[in-house]
Amino acid sequence: MPRILNNQLVATAGQEPCVRLRATGRRAEGHGGGSRFTDSFELPAEDQLRFGALLSTRTACADDRSNTIETTGLNTLTTTRTYQIKGDPGRLFAAAFTSPAAILHAVYLR
What we know:
By secondary structure, the protein is an alpha+beta fold.
């Protein structure tokens, strides 16, 4: 679950945004707050992460703040180039370890 996007706390009126990375088929999927999305991803080198062509339902969110968070979150995925996971939270970066574009907290699914 993204908790911080571009130094802004993530709080929405609707469903909480989430992203799942599935090792099988290297697929990413999730919910932006109003829309569902799916994508491919690759790990070209150590600590590098790149997402492919993002597909989204682009459903309107419950409010303007949620729409902004969703747009920011989806843009963050498309610009992600590196990542860092040292326990919880994980971090996504647009460039090699500048300030994080997103801070994610793990939620373990059954």
